[in-house]
Design the sequence.
C-alpha cells in the first residue's frame, strides 16, 4: 500500500461535529472498524477499490436521500407540526451533476453484477451498512470468506466499469417510442 486515501482519518466511524461530545471509553470499545479499511490494510483491496467503495456509498446515500426527507416529514407531521398540502407529496432535492454521474455509474455496476450472476445485497451490507464480511457470511449462511471474495471481485468490476464506461444513448438518438 503506497498511499492512503484522503478520506481516511481513523479506523473508527465517528461524527466529528463541532459540538460533538467525545465518546466514553466503553462506547469506543463497542465501535466496529470499517470493514473496507480492514480489507485495505490487509491488502485484499487497493486504494482504487477503496475509492470505488466510497463512490458506491455516496451513490446509495444520494439515491436514498429523498426517502429520508419524506420519512422525516412524516415524523414531523406525526409530532403535530404544520403541514402544507399544496406542496404535494414529493420533496425536490437538488442533485448535482456529480451525484447524477455517481448514480449512473452505480446503476451500470449493478447491471454488470447481475450480468456476472453476482449478488449485490451482501456487498451493500459491507460497503454501505458497514457489516463485517464474516457477519454477512453468518447472517446469510454462506461459507467463510465468500463475502470477502465477492466484495473484492465486485469492487474490481466497479473500477473496470468506471475506466471503460459504456455509452448510453440519449433520448434523441433512440427510435421513436423507445425508452432507455
Sequence:
Amino acid at each position: 500500500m503506497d498511499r492512503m486515501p484522503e478520506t481516511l482519518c481513523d479506523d473508527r466511524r465517528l461524527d466529528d461535529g463541532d459540538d460533538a461530545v467525545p465518546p466514553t471509553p466503553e462506547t469506543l470499545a463497542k465501535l466496529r472498524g470499517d470493514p473496507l479499511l480492514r480489507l485495505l490494510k490487509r491488502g485484499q483491496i487497493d486504494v482504487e477499490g477503496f475509492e470505488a467503495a466510497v463512490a458506491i456509498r455516496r451513490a446509495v446515500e444520494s439515491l436514498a436521500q429523498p426517502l429520508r426527507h419524506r420519512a422525516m416529514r412524516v415524523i414531523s407531521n406525526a409530532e403535530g407540526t404544520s403541514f402544507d398540502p399544496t406542496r404535494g407529496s414529493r420533496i425536490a432535492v437538488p442533485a448535482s451533476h456529480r451525484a447524477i454521474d455517481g448514480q449512473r455509474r452505480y446503476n451500470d455496476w449493478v447491471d454488470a453484477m447481475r450480468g456476472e450472476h453476482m449478488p449485490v445485497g451482501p456487498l451493500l451490507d459491507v460497503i454501505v451498512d458497514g457489516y463485517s464480511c464474516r457477519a454477512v457470511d453468518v447472517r446469510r449462511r454462506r461459507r467463510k470468506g465468500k463475502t470477502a471474495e465477492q466484495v473484492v471481485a465486485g469492487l474490481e468490476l466497479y473500477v473496470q466499469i468506471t475506466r471503460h464506461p459504456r455509452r448510453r444513448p440519449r433520448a434523441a438518438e433512440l427510435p421513436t417510442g423507445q425508452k432507455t
Q: What stands out?
A: Residues 32-80+93-164 form one domain.
